[in-house]
Structure formats: structure tokens, C-alpha cells
Amino acid sequence: MKILAIADKEDTRIWDRYKPEILREADLILSAGDLDPHYLSYCVTYSNAPVLYIHGNHDEKYDQTPPEGCICIEDDLVIYQGLRILGLGGSMRYRRGTHQYTEKQMQWRIRRLWLKIRSCGGFDILLTHAPAAGFHDSPDPADICHHGFEAFNELIRKYQPKYHIHGHIHDNYGIKAPQISTNMQTTVINAYRFFQLDHDDTK
Fold first, then answer.
1. Which of 54, 66, 121, 182: CA 20 to 30 A from 203?
2. Is 174 left (phi over 0), alpha (psi -120 to 50) or beta?
3. Whether 137 contacts 103, CB under 8 Å
């Protein structure tokens, strides 16, 4: 299965200077947040794949203008062609506003999903906006907005998903982190702009 992960910045190769192969080759599109809702609607229109999304910390506009034709998997676990995907949007709380959470609030959101995770036998992809603590996040104690959640590490440790796809960390923030790394046995992918993933479900 070819998965297109997108987040944070609309890529001109997809939107303005349309390259049809980027969208048309995708079997599934996952949005990790902070994208124009019209961009997501464009992606679902010009691809043959569903678009599943969660919210970033700047996605208040989705309340008035939700992405048309796309599926929100916020606080949910969905199964697409056998692939189990857990969605947890938002960032660490740094100001008043929606889609921001303290560490305890994120832990509470996860606890509410416990029964569904158990009934599905775990999950294959953890789709979040923020990263996990210590993986692609900001090491600056003052940069609360870009801190990762320890709760995600606990999820990865317990359920051992194949992938953790996140956004929120832009390549111009000065945070020296690779786009792809490993957290325990889980492949961690920063979907900033876009990342093309070829998932082999036989492994």
C-alpha cells in the first residue's frame, strides 16, 4: 500500500504545479494537521485515495470549513484495508485555544480509547500532530509549543505500532531532527510538506 503523509505546509508540487503522480499513486492519504481544508479537499478530489485527517494546533478553521470529502479520525481508531490507524491531533498547550492539551489531558484522551484499541488488537499507525517526547521535538525548555508528548512514547512502548506519523515540526525551526527515525521498534516520520511511504503489509 502506498501511503502519502502530509502536514503543516501545502506543497506546490501537489497544489500549484500539479504533478498527478504524487496523488494518483497514493492508496491512502494521511494528514497530520495544520493544512488548509481546501488543500485536503483538493487532494481527495484529484487522487483515487481517501484522505484521513486529524487537527493541528492551528486548525480552528475546520469548525467552519471542514475539508470536504475527507474523514476526521480525531480521537478514533479506524481500519482501512486491514490497516489500523489511531488518530490523536493537537499540540502541547501553550496558549488559550482549541486543539492544545496538557500531558495529563492527552493521557486522558488515550485512556478513553483503551477499549477500542484492545478490541482491535492494537494499531499499526499512530497518526498525531505533535511528536513524541524526545523524538523530533524541540529540546528548548522555553519552546513549550513544540515539546512532544510522553504519552505517545507509552503508546508506542505498549502497542508497538509499525509507524508513528506526525507533523508540527517544520524544517525551518532550527530543530535538528531527521525526517525519519526509530523509536524503539516504531518508524517515526515527520510528514512536514509530504512523505511517500510504501507499506508492505506482509512484514
1. 54
2. left
3. no
Cα-based distances in Å from 91 to 2, 125, 131:
27, 18, 8
Determine how many CB atoms are found less than 10 A away from the CB of residue 94. 13
Name the 3-class secondary structure at 64: coil
Q: What is the pLDDT of residue 202?
A: 44
Decide: 32 and 167 in contact? Cβ < 8 Å.
yes
Condensed to tens digits (0 to 9), the pLDDT of residues 78-124 reads 999 999 999 999 999 988 889 999 999 999 999 999 999 999 999 99
For the chain, which residues score pLDDT lower than 70? 17-20, 140, 142, 172-177, 201-203
DSSP letter for 110, please. Answer: H
Q: How far is CA 83 from CA 4, 6, 124, 125, in A?
A: 14, 18, 6, 8
